[in-house]
């Protein structure tokens, strides 16, 4: 009888233990799945830039501070916090950011120019007295054309150097009807061979040895293309080739001899396929591995591997929330920053997708 009771007690204990383990297993299964599905990663938005009509330019200064230019403000990130500059800080325009050899920050829009004195911005004048102390190579500004001005303003570019401020006109005939075709649309870019490249609506000009190279409709093979030319970005890659971003016909590449319609060659022009295309290109950059990156309007960010001839398109599903990618900037750490509009955000590629960091 005692043996029987002992056996029964043992059976009850084993059954109860088995049931308990089974129940525990069910509870664990029911909890882990919802927890995994409901897990959300907290996004730090404290360093996101104030909303504005796009981040148009980025610059890293000699101290490692990042500067962001927008239509409504200039912001500086010192590694810890964002600081904003506007009219209260002496700045009543925004535009292209520049850094001279002394580390001084300049900002200009083709009409006005301001110098940062460490605390606020001071307006300077475009004249021969505007010099960058000790800057032998100079920095370059485009002359703007007022859309409301009635007088003809000669299109060209300023060189701010250690001696004076020199204005160099583009090789164009005076034409009141077409002066806005040469309104500044890109920041000046210095190539590997010291050619100064500048973009306008209708043409790209390259200043070399006191003479200009011009790349326009004819050089781009667009004589029969009725779409308006709109040069929005220029870039010189590690091989010295000039890349041109046109908001209408896409990417063109000048190798020193001829200009290639890169977008058409890869069947990525408007109407070439039913998916995203490259015909509305705005910005270009090259990463440390030699991949080319393109920012577009409404077609996200593109990566092109010249070794494999492969493209990858990143869109909103990949973290690119902005409608337009205005500029791509490479930092001293060789990181690419992608600046956009709607929303005004700055993104960084994490290897798979894009994270908004500013």
SSE topology:
Blueprint: H1 2-38, E1 57-60, E2 66-69, E3 74-77, E4 82-85, E5 96-99, E6 105-108, E7 113-116, E8 121-124, E9 139-142, E10 156-160, E11 165-169, E12 189-190, E13 196-199, E14 204-208, E15 211-215, E16 231-236, E17 242-246, E18 250-254, E19 259-261, H2 262-265, E20 281-286, E21 292-296, E22 301-305, E23 310-314, E24 324-330, E25 336-341, E26 346-349, E27 354-356
Pfam families: Reg_prop
GO molecular function: phosphorelay sensor kinase activity
Keywords: Phosphoprotein, Signal
SSE pattern: HEEEEEEEEEEEEEEEEEEEHEEEEEEEE
Main sheet? 4 strands, antiparallel
Helix content: 10-25%
The appropriate CATH architecture of the domain at 51-125 is: Beta Barrel
| CATH fold group of the domain at 51-125 | Thrombin, subunit H
Arrangement of strands in the largest sheet:
1-2-3-4
Rg (CA only): 28 Å
* N→C terminal distance: 79 Å
Q: pLDDT average, as an integer?
A: 84
Oligomer classification: single chain
Please state the structural category: mainly beta
Query: Which stretches of 5+ consecutive residues score pLDDT under 50?
Result: 1-40
Measured by DSSP, the beta-strand proportion falls in: 25-35%
CATH class of the domain at 51-125: Mainly Beta
Short description:
Keywords: Phosphoprotein, Signal. The protein has helices at about 1-40, 260-265; strands at about 55-60, 65-70, 75, 80-85, 95-100, 105-110, 115, 120-125, 140, 155-160, 165-170, 190, 195-200, 205-210, 210-215, 230-235, 240-245, 250-255, 260, 280-285, 290-295, 300-305, 310-315, 325-330, 335-340, 345-350, 355.
């Amino acid at each position: 009888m005692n043996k029987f009771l002992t056996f029964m007690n043992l059976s009850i204990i084993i059954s109860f233990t088995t049931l308990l383990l089974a129940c525990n297993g069910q509870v664990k299964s029911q909890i882990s799945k919802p927890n995994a599905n409901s897990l959300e990663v907290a996004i730090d938005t404290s360093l996101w830039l104030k909303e504005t009509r796009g981040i148009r330019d980025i610059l890293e200064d000699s101290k490692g501070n990042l500067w962001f230019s927008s239509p409504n403000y200039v912001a500086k990130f010192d590694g810890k916090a964002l600081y904003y500059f506007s009219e209260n800080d002496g700045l009543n325009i925004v535009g292209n950011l520049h850094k001279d050899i002394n580390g001084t920050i300049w900002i200009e829009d083709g009409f006005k120019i301001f110098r940062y004195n460490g605390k606020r911005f001071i307006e300077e004048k475009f004249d021969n007295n505007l010099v960058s102390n000790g800057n032998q190579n100079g920095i370059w500004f485009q002359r703007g054309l007022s859309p409301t001005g009635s007088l003809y303003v000669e299109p060209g570019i300023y060189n701010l150097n250690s001696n004076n401020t020199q204005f160099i006109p583009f090789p164009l005939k005076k034409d009141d009807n077409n002066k806005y075709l040469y309104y500044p649309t890109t920041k000046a870019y210095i190539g590997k061979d010291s050619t100064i490249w500048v973009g306008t609506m209708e043409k790209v000009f390259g200043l070399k040895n006191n003479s200009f190279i011009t790349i326009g409709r004819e050089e781009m093979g667009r004589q029969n293309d009725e779409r308006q030319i709109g040069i929005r970005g220029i870039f010189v890659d590690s091989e010295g080739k000039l890349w041109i971003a046109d908001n209408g016909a896409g990417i063109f590449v000048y190798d020193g001899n001829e200009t290639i319609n890169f977008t058409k060659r890869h069947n990525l022009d408007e109407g070439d396929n039913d998916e995203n295309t490259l015909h509305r290109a705005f910005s270009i950059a090259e990463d440390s591995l030699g991949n080319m990156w393109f920012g577009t309007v409404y077609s996200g960010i593109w990566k092109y591997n010249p070794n494999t001839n492969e493209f990858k398109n990143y869109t909103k599903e990949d973290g690119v929330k902005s409608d337009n990618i205005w500029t791509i900037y490479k930092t001293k750490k060789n990181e690419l920053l992608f600046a956009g509009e709607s929303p005004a955000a700055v993104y960084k590629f994490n290897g798979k997708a894009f994270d908004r960091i500013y």
